[in-house]
Write a structure and sequence with these properties.
This protein has 562 residues and is an alpha/beta fold. Helix content is 25%, strand content 23%. It contains 12 helices and 29 strands. It has a 7-stranded mixed beta sheet. Strands 23-20-21-22-14-17-24 form a 7-stranded mixed beta sheet, with no helix packed on it. The protein binds adenosine-5'-triphosphate (ATP) and magnesium ion. Adenosine-5'-triphosphate (ATP) binds next to helix 2 and strand 8.
């Protein structure tokens, strides 16, 4: 399966799927199931958005309907074209294809304006000219009903004239707003004459300077859904209190369809922040190098980190769709990634912290090419050619002069197997003036390629290695979780205090198998005994290879937090 094929299997709980299935079974829903993913183009998509994407596209897929991509662009000051481009790239990368061309709420500004006129003509909306402080006071609070604005009793004719003036730019920002006339005493604050249109003298990325009034999210969203024929408008729980308003607009407007809003619990992940405001702060204050830094939980960040679309989709499906906000352990996401990469990533060897080994009985200048499997269980992945030479490197941590039985690596006087190659025995150590080991002299046993040594005793350990002379040098970025605590900001004044200072360690001069250097960017591999890595999407070249750690082979955090 290519990473762009989606294979959605309905394994997790999804109460919305159950509702729709029941609607279809009872004949309450006929025709296509139409959904939409409605990002605001004011930042990059993150792992939380992936959940929403999987839910919306997944439901459409499951019921053989379709899903659109609609930019919710009613906030011109905060929105940018580059976010529009990036969001499309990320949705495609996750493996989804929207129906038709991309849509914008701004495509419907003219219709929305007519809808506003419709409300005014029916006495259901009025132009208010209270200052924002006054409006706040009139609004009341949870315990106090609001009071009617003196402008609430304006006639439709007066309101039409005033609204035209708003559109014509005759009001400054904050001087006038169009409000729905609902109920200033409503228990649900969203129904206390919510604002439908605001004055904003801002250039819009789609509509330029055509408008100086912009519809509110609540006014634009449901009506855009109706115009597009969306049947199931799925959003997160914080919009549950907006549903009565969503329905009120649909009831009071001549919309072509009656979409229904459904809310599900947001995906929150431990050790992770998924608020765009917080992510933006990490960038602005230089804690990370932009939205697509591999430490970021953005889709472009975790893509650079080596996460696979399939793993993210599997994770979202497993998490399920629930009626309450929940916290999911980030280990579950990492597990999904490990699982996918374990099955699909070819194996390779990389020595991150090289210690020179001289094979004293191996002829200088000779190169023996050893063929190793590309993957232990996969015959479809091509074999690798590993040059073995007199001088090789192993990890510093894989040699000790003396050790107890638990240390199953190379010890002076003892044997170990070189992964994919021969058994060697350490005879001698060379140290520098500081007493540090700089070289180990070993003998290799030429009869042990795929065979036990003559004494029949299997060496306890297997260690990875790379030829010192016939290898490529790489920069390896070892990434760890961006935050060191499961709920950043819970026990600190400021969430940035919880950043993990060890989230990035850069290893220069790592030795990699020569066959790895020409890998194309975004090639994923398992460095045997270390973890999963990916050739950096932007920085990797055959001349200067750069690999990012996706995830370690094992979860080193397990047990660290209660
Ligand atoms: P933020 O709060 O970070 O600014 P947002 O919800 O305002 O995010 P939008 O661009 O409006 O960002 O989100 C697009 C869609 O993604 C919305 O339907 C929203 O409900 C959904 N979404 C955003 N975050 C999550 C999350 N953590 N889990 C599930 N769905 C999410
Ligand atoms: Mg939003």
């Amino acid at each position: 399966m290519s990473e762009h094929d989606t294979q959605l299997t309905a394994t997790g709980n999804n109460f919305i799927r159950d509702i729709i299935a029941a609607q279809i079974a009872h004949g309450e829903h006929t025709g296509d199931v139409v959904t939409r993913f409605p990002p605001e183009p004011n930042g990059f998509l993150h792992i939380g958005h992936a959940q929403s994407i999987c839910v919306n596209f997944g439901l459409a897929d499951y019921f053989d309907g379709f899903c659109r991509l609609r930019f919710d662009d009613t906030n011109p000051e905060k929105e940018e074209q580059r976010y529009i481009d990036q969001i499309q790239e990320d949705v495609h990368w996750l493996g989804f294809e929207w129906e038709g061309s991309i849509r914008f709420s701004s495509d419907y500004f003219e219709t929305l304006y007519e809808y506003a006129l419709h409300l005014i003509e029916n006495g259901d909306a009025y132009v208010d000219e209270l200052s924002s402080e006054q409006a706040r006071a009139y609004r009341g609070d949870w315990n106090t009903p609001g009071t009617n604005s003196p402008y609430r009793s304006r006639t439709p004719a007066e309101n039409l004239e005033r609204f035209e003036m708003m559109r014509a730019g005759q009001f400054g920002e904050g001087q006038a707003a169009l409000r729905a006339k609902i109920d200033m005493a409503a228990g649900n604050m969203n129904l206390r004459d919510p604002i439908i249109y605001r004055v904003r003298h801002a250039t819009h990325h789609q509509t330029g300077d055509r408008w100086c009034i912009y519809p509110s999210y609540d006014f634009a969203h449901g009506q855009s859904d109706a115009i597009e024929g969306v049947t199931h408008s799925i959003c997160t729980l914080e919009f549950a209190d907006h549903r009565p308003l969503y329905d009120w607009f649909i009831d009071h407007l001549p919309v072509p369809a009656r979409p229904v809003q459904y809310e599900f619990g947001r995906l929150n992940i431990s050790f992770t922040v998924t608020s765009k405001r917080r992510l933006r702060r990490l960038i602005d204050e230089g804690f990370v190098n932009g939205w697509d830094d591999p430490r970021m939980p953005t889709l472009s960040g975790i893509r650079r980190r080596g996460y696979t679309p399939a793993a993210i989709r599997d994770f979202c499906e497993a998490v399920g769709v629930t009626r309450t906000d929940g916290m999911v352990d980030v280990a579950q996401l990492e597990h999904a990634v490990r699982d996918d990469l374990n099955k699909n990533a070819p194996r390779a060897m990389c020595v991150m912290d090289p210690l020179k080994i001289v094979l004293t009985n191996f002829a200088a200048g000779e190169v023996e090419t050893i063929t190793a499997r590309g993957h232990p269980d996969r015959d479809d992945l091509p074999p690798r050619q590993l040059p073995l030479t007199r001088e090789i490197v192993i990890e510093h941590a894989d040699f000790r002069e003396s050790a107890n039985k638990k240390y199953k690596r190379l010890v002076l006087g003892k044997k170990v197997r070189l992964r994919n190659a021969y058994v060697i025995q350490a005879d001698d150590v060379v140290k520098n003036d500081a007493g540090e080991i700089i070289e180990v002299h070993c003998r290799y046993d030429p009869d042990t390629l795929g065979e036990l040594p003559a004494d029949g005793v299997k060496p306890k350990g297997v260690i990875h290695w790379v030829s010192a002379s016939h290898s490529a040098r790489a920069t390896v970025r070892e990434y760890d979780r961006l935050f060191a605590t499961d709920k950043p900001g819970r026990d600190t004044e400021d969430f940035v205090e919880d950043l993990n200072p060890n989230a990035l360690t850069i290893h220069h001069n790592c030795h990699i198998e020569p066959g790895l250097a020409p890998a194309v960017p975004e090639t994923r591999v398992q460095f045997e005994r270390i973890g999963y890595f990916v050739a950096d999407r932007y920085d990797h070249t055959p001349e200067a290879p750069v690999f990012n750690q996706t995830v370690a082979l094992r979860d080193s955090w397990a047990g660290k937090t209660a």
